[in-house]
């Protein structure tokens, strides 16, 4: 019995081991996924906010975890990819402190009403930010995306110097992990000896001009080739971009290091510029409808002056049946303040110069104008700063109020509108940058992804997935976060899949894709003040 | 040595099975060792479960069988397109069984059984890719059954009795593929209840046309366990009116069927050998949908999860050999068909068709007391399957990939007769 028992239990034990289930072709086995010509053991990602995982107007942990470089790196792990370190923020509040004082705003969240209907984005106030940019992180990071960085910033010494953050001379995000106060982003990247890199830079070289409504300078017009003298809302000169970009890639592609380059999407793909229509004034809105007769009666006099001054096309009229365009200031128009002052002298007396100045470059918006997302919060509201200004100029209080309704009586300021001339300036730069990026990719034998084509597809037809269609519709489309510019995790997943496809084509690799339906979109939260 | 070789062969050659859905066919050490046959085998008090009609043919006045098995189950999942793979936390289930019978007189025996024919314990890694369907589930049903058995003649007997069921459930899943709180923690719900009771019954008959041949029939009724006012706990919901739910506890109602099972079979004794065959029909067709209605929301079921099971069959073969006075060897095989239909393969009960291989032995310590040992190994084919009826914004979103399961269960028991 004893001898038999021993045998019996020995076999039992064998059976236990043998019964572990195993697949015929386990995905972690050899040859299922391959890196092809790539060495993915040390992937370093360079770029701006898009690369960092910035979303909802802020950088926070879950956004970083769902950044396209991190998604890529997780897929790479099945094909020889190494660890991927990110300079994670301290929380999911977004926002940041400098020496205890808040210098960057918290993230946006989507607010819902009592009936479960979305109201709109608002800044999250449920917790205080805890990331202090003066707390230096140790070690080096694979994700070197720096929110706010323009092309030339990656090679700018001192860009990560925390002492320069307050004065706007350095970047608060790079200050957290720059290896020294003098270093550059590119130097810290190269020092990591990447075996593979991605570079998506140049967006901010036009985007900050665009999101600011074109208030900056276009250095393709000024011909200024010295980026250190550029303002933050300027367009980088095409030649400066080409030269800086080539140098960045040259530094990264040293010794034949492989990589992938992404081009610059159209600003018009982003809900920041497509959400607010040029004609948002709806006569079905009772408060606006009530004002229409008075507005038209008031503008009738101005319209006569426009005609008399030879600019009848600037006439302003509000419809009682269809949506009307807002009144904007178009700085490309000839300023007719002087003529208007004379023409309005009879009706407005001593106030004529003030009124004339207000409408000297005014017109109603056209379908070719792009209103920024920020304008949605001000249109139809009384501009209190303007009221105070007018009162200061001696305008009676009541009249000052009447003249200060944003977009109705007070032309929307330049910063809220991208007029066609500004759009053209942006497009000229974008086309030139994209030509550079594609040429540099070709010249260096690197993989290339047209983020422009991808986002155009999202904006025009949407991209279907197992749970619906991703579009660029603000808040509900799934592709863009609540700042209207940066992607959601789902948008990042889409970018990651496009990159994987390009890498497979260029480098004979094979990678698993991600299911974009498993990636979230915007965050609902009512903890807002 | 020859006997040893025979033993080894038995153990190696033997194949056995489990059963589809959340049925756990481990209701007796001796039967288990013989492919879980027993509707026509007169051997021990395990008949309380397999066929109460047979109890009157047991030789002894008092028969007691107790046993327990440790079921080690493993399920692995992978999706090659997405490069994801997961494995369930190797859970150990411990079904118990306790049977006793007493011959009151020449034509009547009474018995009592406590057994656990239904249960499921599956734990996937929290927040895994299928977490919107299940993170973990633990179902258990304890059956308590008094039976009575009447000998109509030496050729024919009948038996049966009421069944008292005590059920419990603990089930957690995420509310959707993406819903989370501000920190990215996935919103989820746990439903939990225990001590849910319900009555059912079973009835059996046995026919012995010759001295060596027995035919058996047994039917166990369907029992639908209804949870009313169980505890549902929501966690990690966003602090928002976007979802009509709040963190914390509410009640839930749900119903889970424990399907009826019909068994017919035969056994044949020849010298030292016993051969047995059982056919089980499990009426899983009753399991159409798992609907959960939460108390905090006003109307209708809040979570509708179509299951659409079909009736299924199991085919069981068993063999017993009286090796020595003290040692009895057993082996068996069964084929168990899954009740899960294509497109309804949910990871909470990832069962496809399986082959079971069983073996075991009894060692008589004294003429009255024997130790019973059994094991079974359940082999599942690798299967590409999906659950296609999870809805997101009114659209069905499939979840699938390749699954492979296995189950292994060694068991020990004691048989006492007097």
TrEMBL record, chain A:
InterPro entries: SGNH_hydro_sf. It comes from the Bacteria. GO terms for molecular function: hydrolase activity, acting on ester bonds. This is Outer membrane protein.
Automatic annotation (TrEMBL), chain B:
It comes from Aquimarina muelleri. This is Fatty acid transporter. Keywords: Cell outer membrane, Membrane, Signal, Transmembrane, Transmembrane beta strand. It is found in: Cell outer membrane. GO terms for cellular component: cell outer membrane. It comes from the Bacteria. It is a multi-pass membrane protein. The lineage of its organism: Bacteria, Pseudomonadati, Bacteroidota, Flavobacteriia, Flavobacteriales. Its main location: membrane. One of its GO terms (molecular function) is long-chain fatty acid transporting porin activity. Belongs to the OmpP1/FadL family.
């Amino acid at each position: 019995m004893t001898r038999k028992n021993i045998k019996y239990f020995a076999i039992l034990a064998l059976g236990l081991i043998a019964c572990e289930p195993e697949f015929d072709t386990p995905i972690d086995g050899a040859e299922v996924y391959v890196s092809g010509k790539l060495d993915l053991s040390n992937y370093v990602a360079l770029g701006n906010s898009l690369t960092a995982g910035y979303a909802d107007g802020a950088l926070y942990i879950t956004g970083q975890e769902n950044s396209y470089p991190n998604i890529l790196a997780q897929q790479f792990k099945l094909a020889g990819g190494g660890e991927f370190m990110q300079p994670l923020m301290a929380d999911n509040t977004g926002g940041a402190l400098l020496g205890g004082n808040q210098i960057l705003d918290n993230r946006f969240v989507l607010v819902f009403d009592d009936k479960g209907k979305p109201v709109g984005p608002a800044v999250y106030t449920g917790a205080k930010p805890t990331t202090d940019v003066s707390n230096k992180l140790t070690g080096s990071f694979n994700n070197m995306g720096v929110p706010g960085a323009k092309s030339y910033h990656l090679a700018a010494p001192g860009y990560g110097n925390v002492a320069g953050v307050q004065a706007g001379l350095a970047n608060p995000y790079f200050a957290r992990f720059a290896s020294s106060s003098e270093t550059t982003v590119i130097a810290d990247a190269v020092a990591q000896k990447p075996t593979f890199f991605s570079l998506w830079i140049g967006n901010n070289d036009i985007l900050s001009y665009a999101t600011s409504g074109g208030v900056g300078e276009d250095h393709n017009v000024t011909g200024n080739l010295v980026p250190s003298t550029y303002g933050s809302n300027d367009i980088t000169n095409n030649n400066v971009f080409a030269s800086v970009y080539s140098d960045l890639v040259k530094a990264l592609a040293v010794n034949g290091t492989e990589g992938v380059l992404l081009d610059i999407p159209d600003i018009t793909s982003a809900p920041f510029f497509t959400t607010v229509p040029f004609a948002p004034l709806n006569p079905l809105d009772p408060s606006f409808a009530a004002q229409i007769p008075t507005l038209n009666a008031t503008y009738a006099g101005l319209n006569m002056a426009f005609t008399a001054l030879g600019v009848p096309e600037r006439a302003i009229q509000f419809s009682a049946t269809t949506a009307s365009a807002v009144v904007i200031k178009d700085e490309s128009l000839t300023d007719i303040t002087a003529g208007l002052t004379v023409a309005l002298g009879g009706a407005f007396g001593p106030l004529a110069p003030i009124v004339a100045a207000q409408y000297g470059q005014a017109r109603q918006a056209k379908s070719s104008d792009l209103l920024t997302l920020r304008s949605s919060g001000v249109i139809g509201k009384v501009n209190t700063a303007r009221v105070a200004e007018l009162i200061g100029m001696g305008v009676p209080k009541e009249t000052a109020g009447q003249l200060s309704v944003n977009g109705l009586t007070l032309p929307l300021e330049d910063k809220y509108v991208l007029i066609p001339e500004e759009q053209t300036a942006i497009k000229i730069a974008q086309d030139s940058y994209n030509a550079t990026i594609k040429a540099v990719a070709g010249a260096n034998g690197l993989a290339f992804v047209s983020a422009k084509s991808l986002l155009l597809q999202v904006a025009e037809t949407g991209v279907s997935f197992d749970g619906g269609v991703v579009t660029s519709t603000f808040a509900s489309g799934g592709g863009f976060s609540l700042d209207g510019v940066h992607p959601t995790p789902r948008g990042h997943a889409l970018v990651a899949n496009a990159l994987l496809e390009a890498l497979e084509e260029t480098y004979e690799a094979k990678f698993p894709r991600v299911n974009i339906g498993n990636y979230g979109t915007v965050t609902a939260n009512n903890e807002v003040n | 040595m020859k006997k040893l070789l025979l033993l080894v062969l038995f153990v190696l050659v033997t194949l056995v099975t489990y059963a589809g859905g959340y049925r756990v066919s481990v209701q007796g050490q001796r039967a288990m060792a013989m492919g879980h046959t027993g509707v026509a085998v007169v051997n021990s008090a395990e008949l309380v479960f397999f066929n109460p009609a047979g109890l009157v043919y047991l030789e002894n006045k008092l028969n007691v069988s107790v046993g327990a098995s440790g079921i080690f189950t493993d399920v692995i999942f992978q999706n090659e397109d997405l490069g994801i793979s997961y494995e369930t936390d190797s859970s150990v289930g411990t079904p118990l069984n306790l049977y006793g019978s007493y011959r009151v007189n020449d034509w009547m025996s009474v018995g009592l059984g406590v057994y656990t024919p239904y249960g499921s314990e599956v734990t996937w890694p929290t927040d895994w890719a299928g977490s919107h369907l299940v993170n973990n589930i633990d179902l258990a049903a304890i059956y308590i059954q008094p039976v009575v058995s009447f000998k109509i003649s030496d050729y024919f007997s009948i038996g049966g009795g009421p069944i008292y069921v005590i059920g419990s459930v603990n089930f957690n899943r995420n509310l959707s593929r993406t819903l989370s709180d501000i920190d990215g923690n996935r919103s989820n719900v746990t439903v939990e209840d225990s001590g849910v009771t319900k009555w059912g019954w079973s009835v059996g008959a046995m026919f012995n046309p010759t001295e060596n041949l027995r035919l058996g029939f047994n039917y166990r009724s369907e029992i639908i366990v209804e949870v009313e006012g169980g505890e549902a706990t929501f966690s990690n919901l966003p602090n928002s009116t976007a979802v009509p739910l709040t963190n914390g506890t509410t009640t839930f109602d749900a119903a889970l069927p424990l399907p009826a099972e019909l068994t017919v079979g035969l056994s044949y004794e020849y010298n030292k050998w016993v051969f047995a065959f059982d056919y089980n029909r499990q009426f899983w067709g009753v399991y159409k949908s798992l609907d959960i209605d939460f108390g905090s929301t006003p109307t209708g079921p809040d979570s509708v999860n179509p299951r659409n099971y079909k009736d299924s069959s199991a085919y069981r073969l068993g063999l017993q050999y009286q090796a020595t006075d003290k040692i009895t060897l057993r082996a068996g095989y069964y084929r168990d068909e899954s009740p899960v239909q294509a497109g309804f393969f949910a990871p909470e009960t990832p069962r496809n068709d399986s082959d079971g291989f069983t073996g075991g032995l009894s060692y008589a310590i004294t003429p009255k007391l024997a130790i019973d040992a059994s094991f079974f190994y359940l082999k599942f084919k690798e299967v590409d399957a999906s659950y296609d009826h999870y809805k997101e914004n009114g659209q069905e979103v499939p979840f699938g990939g390749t699954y492979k399961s296995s189950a292994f269960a060694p068991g020990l028991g004691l048989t006492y007769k007097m």
